[in-house]
Write a structure and sequence with these properties.
With about 140 residues, this protein is mostly helical. The protein has 6 helices and 2 strands, in the order αααβααβα. The mean pLDDT is about 75.
Length: about 140
C-alpha cells in the first residue's frame, strides 16, 4: 500500500501481472522463462479503427437505390399488364394478352418463355426490356 491507502500492483519484467500472476510471485518465478519468450499482443492502434469507422459511416450514408419514377416504362408496363389481366390471377392467357396488349399480340410465343400458355409480369417485363435494349443499340459488326 502507498501513502494514500490504495494498493498498487508492481509490474514484473515480463508483464506477468497481465497474466494474473501479480499476487503470486512464486508462480511468476517458475513461469518467467516461458512468459519472456511469449510475444504479447500489440495494442490496438487508433488509425485502423478510425478508418474502419469512417468506412462504415460512408457505407451507412451512401445513397439509397432509387425507385422507378411513376411514369417510367416499368410502371406503364405494369399498369398495362394489370388492365389486361381480366381475372386478376396475375397471368395473362393468350386471349387476355391479345385483347389487352394488341401491339404485342403477334409476339405471344416469344413473351411466353416457359411455354405454359400464360404470361406473367416477369416474362412480359423481360421481353419489354429486351425489345427496348435491342432498339437502342445498333447491331454489332464482326
Amino acid at each position: 500500500m502507498d501513502r494514500s491507502g490504495s494498493a498498487r500492483m508492481r509490474h514484473c519484467k515480463a508483464c506477468a501481472c497481465r497474466q494474473g500472476f501479480a499476487f503470486a510471485p512464486g508462480l511468476w518465478q517458475k513461469s518467467a522463462p516461458a512468459l519472456s519468450r511469449r510475444r504479447m499482443p500489440a495494442p490496438i492502434r487508433p488509425v485502423p479503427l478510425l478508418a474502419l469507422c469512417a468506412a462504415l459511416l460512408a457505407a451507412a450514408c451512401a445513397e439509397q437505390p432509387r425507385r422507378a419514377a411513376p411514369n417510367s416504362l416499368y410502371h406503364r408496363t405494369l399498369a398495362e399488364f394489370q388492365k389486361a389481366d381480366i381475372d386478376h390471377d396475375e397471368q395473362l392467357t393468350a386471349d387476355e394478352f391479345k385483347a389487352g396488349l394488341p401491339e404485342l399480340a403477334d409476339h405471344f410465343g416469344e413473351v411466353d418463355t416457359d411455354g405454359n400458355g400464360k404470361v406473367n409480369f416477369a416474362e412480359l417485363w423481360s421481353y419489354v426490356q429486351y425489345r427496348y435494349v435491342s432498339r437502342q443499340q445498333p447491331p454489332r459488326e464482326r
